[in-house]
Amino acid sequence: MNPERIGARVDSRQAKLAGRAAEQIINDVVEMGWPVGAVLGSEAELLERYGVSRAVLREAIRLVEHQRVARMRRGTGGGLVIDEPSVDAVIGPAVIHLLRAGATLDEIFDTRILLEELVAELATQRLTEEGLAIIRDAVDREAESRVSDYRHLHTQLARLSGNPVLELFVETFSRVCNFHFADPDALPADIDREVLRAHRGIAKAVLANEPGLARDRMRRHLRAEADFIRAQPDTVQRLDPDVALAGTLGDKRGEALARQIFAELLTTGATPDTFVGSEAELMQRYSASRAVVREAIRILEYHRIAITRRGPGGGLYVTEPDIAAVVDIIAIYLRRHGVQLQHIADLRFRLELAVVARAAEALRPRSRRAGRETDGEVGMLEAALRAEAEQGPAAAFDRGEDFHTMLGRLTGNRALSLVHSVVLRLGWQFFAQSAADDPRAQALSQNLPSAVLPAHQGIADALLAGDVELAVARMRSHLAETGPGSEPTGGAG
Ligand SMILES: [Zn+2]
Ligand SMILES: [Zn+2]
Questions:
Q1: What is the mean pLDDT of residues 112-127?
Q2: N or C terminus: which one in the chain shows less Cβ crowding within 10 Å?
Q3: Same fold, 104-231 and 340-481
Q4: Average pLDDT score over the chain
Q5: Is residue 349 within 8 Å of 355, Cβ to Cβ?
Q6: What is the pLDDT of residue 221?
Q7: Where does the record place a coiled coil (predicted)?
Q8: pLDDT confidence of residue 222
Q9: Are 91 and 126 in contact (CB under 8 A)?
Q10: CA 27 vs CA 24, 360, 432, 439: distances in Å
Q11: How many other C-beta atoms can be found within 10 angstroms of the C-beta atom of residue 410?
Q12: Greater pLDDT, 27 or 53
């Protein structure tokens, strides 16, 4: 990076105020019952309602536009119009995040198997007569080759799990897998038959009300699929940026340029704060018009890949991958789609046990003996315990420095860590809500440190001693003890 190229950073105080204003806007939209198309107010009205400066309001609007909560409409009858966050508006940023974070195909598979095992189990336990008909129909259609999407049964099962978090992530990861493996039509006929046989087996177990069997069959099926995809000569471990940014709304040429710039940044491994170019330089480098360059910049900014800094040395700069921004977008989408505490509870228990087992693997003294340095990992764990003791668990969580978030990071699985972060975030939101309404929860929230810090310490001790089984057992009882209302675990599930 050229040290002369240091444009003005976004004022952090302003960013904080804007974040708070955006949160108020979202709460107002939720409270109004999310009336899509209604006007929340003109700029003048919003300035008054939220009591912020024009610059702060505009930044807040940029945030809610990014999250597809609302968008600014110019002209008469204009104002901030309430929007509908679509599933594509959520999956796009999630995929770009995975790409920027460098998630591999193996990480995606690992996470997908974990989630779809849970789907198979829950879909079985929650099966209704209507669900039964849906599953029969899905298998019949597939047998008669009447489905174009070979993952049709998976989508239906995810819906039948009755859990919007699972539904969203199953869809996200199955799309990501398709990026690696884009042409299911090219499947040889024997593979087709094998897939159908596996799907029939899963369906049968679900319909026979055998959740354990359904889960095992799902796992075996997805493992076989993963092995098959890995064995394909065209399969790559890293995602293709071209595919990930495909369909980004915008001018075709601007979009193509955004993809090209994004791909180049990934190929060169550009780190945050790297200078990409000024508008004039980009026009020249890519022989593009000002309008095309501006559209490309708009798309890169929208996806938080790069940001424009004004002033001397200004221009386009690479930004830090921002997991908090993606987690926000997903959490807002899920709130819009009626996520409830029970849905978090479904996932939290299984996720935390998977996370602690994988984190233990990363911390194992045996891998230290094998010459792999784990000082960094040990330091991360100790820093999290310190942050919670000094700031309290809630403040540590807000900074992304709490124990559970750190364990998620330690797994080294960026896909799993994304799902985990979303579930943690929603858990804290429900917890804050109940603490605001219920004096008993309020009292518990004040005792949070004494309730959870010793448990976290105990899990950490087991991890540092290399005792995976003990760490998992301690996590299990920690989650069982801290049901809804005493730590944002969402219960033991
Ligand atoms: Zn399948
Ligand atoms: Zn905890």
A1: 96
A2: N
A3: yes
A4: 84
A5: no
A6: 95
A7: none
A8: 94
A9: no
A10: 5, 38, 13, 22
A11: 25
A12: 53
Q: Ligand 1 centroid to 174 CA: how many Å?
A: 10
Q: Which ligand is in closest contact with the Cα of 460?
A: 2
334 CA → ligand 1 middle, Å:
25
Q: Which of 85, 86, 82 is nearest to 72 (CA)?
A: 82
Where do the structural domains in the chain lie, given as residue ranges?
1-84, 104-231, 340-481
What pLDDT is attached to residue 33? 85
Cα-Cα-Cα-Cα dihedral sign, residues 451, 452, 458, 461: negative
Query: How much is the pLDDT for 489?
Result: 47
What's the CATH architecture for 340-481? Answer: Up-down Bundle (1.20)
- Name, in order, each residue with C-beta under 8 angstroms of 337's C-beta and a sequence gap of 6 or more: 164, 168
Distance CA(438)–CA(96), nearest Å, equals 39
CA distances from residue 483 to 341, 420, 427, 476, 486 in whole angstroms, order as listed: 11, 18, 11, 12, 6
CATH H superfamily, domain 104-231? GntR ligand-binding domain-like (1.20.120.530)
Q: What is the mean pLDDT of residues 305-310?
A: 87
pLDDT, average across residues 106-123: 95
* pLDDT of 491 above 50: no
Burial of residue 333, with CB atoms counted within 10 A of its CB: 0-12 exposed, 13-18 middle, 19 or more buried: buried
**How many Å lie between the centroid of ligand 1 and the Cα of residue 224?**
10
Question: Quick one: which ligand is closest to 199's CA?
Answer: 1
Mean pLDDT to the nearest integer, 167-175: 90
Q: Which fold has domain 1-84?
A: Arc Repressor Mutant, subunit A (1.10.10)
pLDDT given at position 183: 59
Confidence of residue 143 (pLDDT cuts 50, 70, 90): confident
Any idea which ligand is nearest the CA of 489?
2
Supply the pLDDT for residue 229.
81
